[in-house]
Amino acid sequence: MLHKSKKRLSALSITGGAWLFSGMAYAGYEYNLNTPASTLTQEIFDLHMLTTVVGTIIMIIVTALIVYALFAFRQSKGAVADQEFHNGWFGRWAWALVPVLVLGIDLSIASSASHTLSSVESHDKADVTVKVIGSQWKWTYEYMDDDIKIVSNLKKLEPTDPLYLRDVDEPLVLPTDRRVRFLLTSTDVLHNWGIAEIVPKKINIPGYINETWTHITKEGTYRGQCYENCGTGHAFMPAVVTAVSPAKYEEWKAGKKAQQAQAAAEASADKEWTQVELMAKGQAVYTKNCLACHQATGLGLPGVFPALAGSKIATSTNPADHIAIVVKGKAGTAMAAWGAQLNDLDIAAVISYERNSWGNAAGIVQPKDIKAAR
To answer: Which family is this sequence assigned to (predicted)?
Structure first.
């Protein structure tokens, strides 16, 4: 009778332990990986859940055996260590059975892991190819087959906004149900572009191309960030992808091409722009690309980003140095070269805005001046 009671107690201990651990697992499920929205991230998620389940089961079994051994073979009950354990059948065969069991578990996981790793490194033909360029502190997206370029900057929001530091002025637009290839690189330091729901992370390395891909299965907006500590503005590099149906994507692509063609034609036109026109356009360019560092007041951030208000470069009667630093950047600082990212009109407009705002009054520059300085 006592023997049966012990069996019941042991069974209850194991069952109770399993219930406790499973309850804890469900309680922490909200802290799991993001819900996948692509075929590749679904594979990664499934592999993660497989290893989690196998690890949890092993933990429960081992913990239950330890608890049982501590209870059933305690000293107060008169238990004595078996000095001949190694001569018994279990003692002789355990050295072979346990490694075989562990290897079998490892191989069951390794099979799925090998398939997932093969998927991550797949280089099959893509329907859309996007070059993702990291810079301090923004993302530039180039659609390699469609001659479309998007510069994606942090969107200025109040700290109380739920999307504070998580939204951008222009997201990357991608189609669902299409294979999308990403070519990852950087213009300055190491960056790391990734969005957990749709694509695994890979590092953006200056002078080198990394590659990854996705096949998005659900429409929606997906948010990520730069996962590499890339400098003082690291927190200001969110990555946002808007996934739309193939039909909507084609519609967006046609509209974007027309918009960029119009902007290019406007920038190349041999026209003398008025100060009012340049100031209006320049303010928009400044707000999108320069405000995060130099601030809306033009005072910058002392010790980090220089002020433009009253600065020598923005008040000099000769704008050559001002044009040079905007077009070519400044090595060893966070001042990027904007010559490859903005057209002549945009650069002329933003320089004119900087030279005639916050008390500055140094005159305007024209697109032809930028063209001559390139």
So the answer is: Belongs to the cytochrome c oxidase subunit 2 family.
